[in-house]
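re: ur question from yesterday

yeah so i grabbed the chain u mentioned. its 235 aa long if i counted rite. heres the sequnce exactly as i have it in my notes:
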Amino acid sequence: MTKGLVIVFGDSTAAKKEDSVRPETGWAECFEGYLAPGWKLLNYAENGMSSKSFVRSGKIEEALLRAEYELKKAEEDEECDTFCAYFIIQFGHNETKTSEDRFSLAEDFRGNIVSKMIHPIMKAGWQSVLLTPIPRFIFTEEGKVVNSFGEYLYTLHDFASDADYFIDIHSLLSDLFEKAGKSKARKCYMNLEKGQCENYKNGRIDNTHLTEDGAAFVAYAIAKTMKEEGLECIR
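ran it thru and got these structure tokens back, copy pasting raw so excuse formatting
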């Protein structure tokens, strides 16, 4: 039996949320249900993270040590024939933040992900799954989803081949949202009417973060694509 880990590196769009901000939900909170038996999810995504601040946080080293520890446990498990780890990497929402600890130029964005994440993962013997960021809820008058990430999105495509797997979830979700229409896509994001929920009695306009339904939809789309790519971690 193959067992393993799926480890998520990312920002607030994937991170676990406190009850005080619900219904905001990170997509990785909805992902574990798609894992095959013997696999478990470790979510290292955190609110506000850019690729730069994530590198500085020590989370990469922590996750690699955890994977090594789980491998040693698996070697003593008679039911486990093979142990694998997939590292899902998704950044882009916070690269242009003006604070020194988060801002990255596009070329530094590449270095943060390739040199500081993908290469150490590869060296440890694990697999990397690079994702583009989820789109923001911003549409043109013609009903097309806007690329709000500019050159950072294009840069991800430029170094996609450095990862073991590349999933352009931005394009996939953009296509799905455009087909569904703006009014349906809006329900995936934290755009709330006044009185709609207890935590946001005065409503909220947030075109970046996901509702529970939105997170579930994104998690499904990612899992479905990983399954189509043949990753055995997905049931």
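noticed a couple things. Strands lie at 2-9, 39-43, 82-90, 127-131, 165-167. also The radius of gyration is 18 Å.
anyway ttyl
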